[in-house]
Specification:
By secondary structure, the protein is of the alpha/beta class. It has 27 helices and 24 strands.
Amino acid sequence: MSDDRPDPDALIAQLRSDEARAQRGKLRIYFGASAGVGKTWAMLSAAQRERTAGRDVLIGVIETHGRGETAALLAGLDALPLRELDYRGRTLAEFDLDAALARKPAVLLVDELAHTNAPGSRHTKRWQDVQELLAAGIEVWSALNVQHLESLNGTVGAITGVRVHETVPDTVLDEADEVVLVDVTPDELTARLAAGKVYLPQQAERAAQNFFRKGNLIALREIALRRTAEHVEDDVRGWRVEQSGAGGNGRGLQAWNTSGAILACVGPHEGAAQTVRTAARLAGQLNVRWHAVYVETPRLQRLAAAERDRTLAVLKLAEELGAATAVLTGSDVAEQLAGQARRLNCATLVLGRPEPATGWRRWWPFARALPLSRALAQRAPALDIMEVARAESSRRLSRAPLEGARIDSDDHEKAPTYWPGYAWAIATSVALTLVCTPLTGVLELSNIVMVFLLGVVGVAMRFGRGPSALAALLNVAAFDYFFVPPRLSFAVSDVQYVLTFAIMLGVGLLVGQLTAGLRFAAGVSTSRERRARSLFELTRELSAALESSQVVTLGGAAVRGHFGGHALVLVTDASDQLVQPVDPPQGFDPQVADWAFRHGQPAGLATATLAAQPWHYVPLRAPMRVRGVLALSPSQPRWLLIPEQAQQLDTLARQIAIALERVHYVEVAQQAVVEMESERLRNALLGAISHDVRTPLTALIALAESLQTLPPEAHAEAGRAIVAQAHELHALVSNLLDMARLESGIAGGAVNLRRDWQSVEEVVGSAIRAARTSLGNVVVQTALDPELPLVEFDAVLIERVLVNLLENATKYGAPPIVVGARAEPGTLVLTVRDHGPGLPAALLGHEQKLFDKFTRGEAESATPGVGLGLAICRAVVSAHGGEITAANARDGGAEFTVTLPRREPPEPAEAQL
């Protein structure tokens, strides 16, 4: 029997997806093969229909390009005024993003999706403005040509011969809710161009001779149709997957399971960007995840800064196109790529086609290394390998945001090779020659060779490959000239020495190569250990932080320690507003930090939002919400472009955010405990007062009213009853006041004890007399040590302790009540026991709860009292530095024991004489 019930996990995922889509605005893109097909005209026509239907339609920015038919459709539509920006003495008009967010229309028209914003704008590209509008819940309509898609940049450039510089990531089109294809035939588009409906006459003539050739238009039309079909196919696939996961109506449908990710291999050559674009296109067609990786070898580590900049720009492009990027280190590129493909479960590797050998390399077989594709095929036979051709007409990637800063592909130190290394190689060869010359008659030539090889190893360890190679050549020359007969000549008497020279040179070069490689590997391991150590230390320190200020200090110190420069951790206040620094450092912009906090996205340096800023702002995103912002001005700005360093910064920010959230919830829990305790005490106080205060007050009112009707001979009895009720009410109020005074004194450390040397017998007798009203006819016995010494304490307070204990025994125990006192070394022990039922069974093992405020031996009892007598006893005894306990007596009943510290009393004056 088949189970057609829907998958609960799929339903939950679908509900979350629907909720996210409901909060986000919809994106409609009017898509065409080239300019002039009528995208803007179609968009404005649809906008007029929506306005007629009653929707709030607003024009953010529209480019009519002087077309009268398009401009006529603007009539009746509200439009935002453009924002003016000054740039190099010119005034540029740009789309006003903030005004659109404040206006928040139902539909907003934003033309030219691939447009590059003027410097000084919040975002570099207009499509990034659109993303912020969508996040604010605004529906956006825009227009896009196929040549502006990033993955097709090289393909379109190869077809048309025109380099397109303004591009949009493919993910923007893929994630669009609606794609409306606006299509015309090449002949009709050519006719429009000739009629002046696309460009002005002068521009139209140049366009007809270049971009708008019929062959170009046919090819672009085919690409646009295919790209639209892919989007429709994605919609169908999404619908099938949704129906398959939801069950019910999707019975019989099977979700398509496309497995195998794509790994794009980024190299230092010019065609790396085209490799990334092709991998993005292939991943989109196959609907699979994809990765981009760059393997840094010791040779690539010595590349010029411009070439290293280009590599990081390609990795940034891959991230924009939806790839997960990484930088690997190793001497064998094929081995690193094969291992990464296995770890990521990639089925296809996309490589750039290698450059053909030129010059002497074409004829020298040892100069031609094994092609990377063949090396990968040997190490990973199961992988599909695809080579990508170069695209000479693709746009150049921008590297402007971080110009002027030195690049490092990792955070370990890589000292460049300068002339001192070669000078040391020369000096080492000279020094070894001088040392070995006097030993010519002592050491064999084979041992002298070993000394020269040792010098090569030392130079390689300290200065790298170049100086070690120079040292090997110099050492061979010195050995031949100074030590091989005939000496002081490069002539060789024995041909066997030629083999010795060759072996010596080869071993020297090989040892230098291996030593330098070991040095490189040690540097990589050191950098990895440093990253792991910084994370471990931050996690360990944050685990002990109990306040937000501690997290801020520790987090800022950890980020500064790893990236250098300056770092700030900004947190929120009680009103959930970002707290800005009182004295902000140079270059710090509070508005950018607040934007990153409100939008939950990085901004500033090395990002697509306000990239001209000298600081990098990262939102502290915790599991529940954004807890603040981490602002960083690193000593090496290019580190932010390296995937490993970006991941390190993201991990540090996540650890800080989690610690802030943990501290926040600790404070919330503590506040909740305080509020619960306060509520419990308030309820207990109200309950006690409502019963124990209202009862004597009711009795007093009744007795006072009865005096008017009672005969004179009964007035005396009524007066005694009034006095008894007044005493009971006075005792209750006295307990409340005493408890408040003692608690405030203990909390403030200012309980004023009037200590004096007292006779224990007198204090016990005074307490029994003071409690006589409450005791009534109850018998009180004493068991006092006959040799009790004088003890220093506050007689009034200790008497109050004994009175409360006697009253407690009277209420809950049974006679006789026994008061005992005995002296022990360093302490005085007072006991009060009764012969009643003993302590409640519920409190056995938790006897100290009896001394809590508003705690009674019987929760529901007709016995008067509010549960403060024993609490007062503990407060008084604690103020004296003593201890009070309760337990069941061996012969039955309850016994309370008070232990007070004591010291030997002073000698009487007569004894001193």
